[in-house]
Amino acid sequence: MKTLVVHCHPNPDSFNHALYRTALEALKPRHPVKAIDLYAEGFDPTLTREERIAYLDNPELIRERVKPHVEALLWAEHLVFVYPTWFHGPPSMLKGWLERVWLPGVAFLPAERKGQLAKSGMRHIRRLTVVTTGGSPRWFVMAIGDPGRRLFTRALRALFAWRCKVTWLQLHDMNAVTDRDRTHFIARVARTLHNIQ
Question: Please, how many CA atoms are within 13 Å of residue 57, restricted to the half-sphere of its CB?
Answer without folding.
Answer: 5
